[in-house]
Design goal:
This protein is mostly beta strands and 427 residues long. The protein has four helices and 31 strands.
Amino acid sequence: MRATLATATIALFTASIIGAIPASAHEQVFDDVSPPTAEEREAELQSAPNGTAACVNGVAADTYSCDGIDMLDHLWLEDLGLSFANDMWGWTDPATGTDYAIVGGTEGTVFVDLKNPRKAEVVGMLPAHVLDEHRPYWRDIKVHDNHAFIVSEQRPHGMQVFDLTRLRDESGTFTEDAHYDGFGNAHNVAINEDTGYAYAIGTSTCDGGLHMVDINDPTNPTGAGCYADDGYIHDTQCVTYSGPDADYQGRELCFNSNADRGGDGHFVSITDVTDKDNPTRVARVPYSDAGYSHQGWLTPDQKYFLHGDELDEVFHGNNTRTRIWDMRDLDDPKHIGTFDNDTTSIDHNIYTKNQRAYASNYTSGLRVYSTKDVASGELEEKAFFDVYPENDNASFEGGTWSNYPYFERDIVGVSTMDRGLFILKVK
């Protein structure tokens, strides 16, 4: 084991996550979460060895249930220097080919060298722009032009900019290379790397909608526009459209998980942001059994959108649910299918690569779905690795927040709130 228990650190981890999540779905169901005792945390640290563990007969490291996925390495919160971890993204150095995991957490953003994915090494941390040591705020990260762009719900965090090429020669505690203060807080940030624009959502501006930032000069981010007509947007994917709808070929579009902030319901919406001075609504469609419209991702051909609602499992008793949207006619998106996993956990972030979808489902871990039959409104689970062995409850008590399947090597990073970072390989 690499770490020893730091009682004060773990007390901060969830002590408590109740109320730490403004403007989000999480705050509605944190009331039953209790922080682990020192004894419980020590038991967790001792129970699962770090390092490589193959999935054999449905279990890895005598702890994690699994199917078709091996653990290459594992870094605890203590290894990362975090008391609470959440989102992650990744970067592959174009000069060296080295993969890096970028993990957000309360204290800041941690950079992990995956040159040898069986021996992940922490390079250093960019501390939070502002830090409230009494509340486990999170950070969300995206990458463009070899720079990381980092936002947080905490005010006045704004957007940090960090030059990732510094990881080649530097280590330890880093300083930010630039800072954007056009908003105080943001729930998340999306980047269209084709155009060099960032889209902060859930901000203190734009009624929580799309706050647009020109990052073509990464260390000189400048405000570029605002879209507030649809109110609060919890997450988005913004792309230069190359899908089948001829009316929008070449347009810059954002595919939004549009959450209820005024009693008008929950939606999947599409915004045309080609003209930053005059962004327009393409479509805004409600759906049934809504709890909280949370996040989604297009299939690589941009024909279909896989969408997660963060609270339908809680409010409607669904199993872990992914909705499939037909986006071939962008003016008229259609919900064509619903995939219910055999687990009861809450779904969170999902990403697609080739004919697979990689879903972080809190207490039931990383789930890998085949999208081969997505046109028929169907998904099929092909593999999983449960990073939270205690249970599959529909709660936020622990488990995976996000994952990143786009490394140069065929590996997947999985960030967890309570157990840090897993490096996994789908067999």
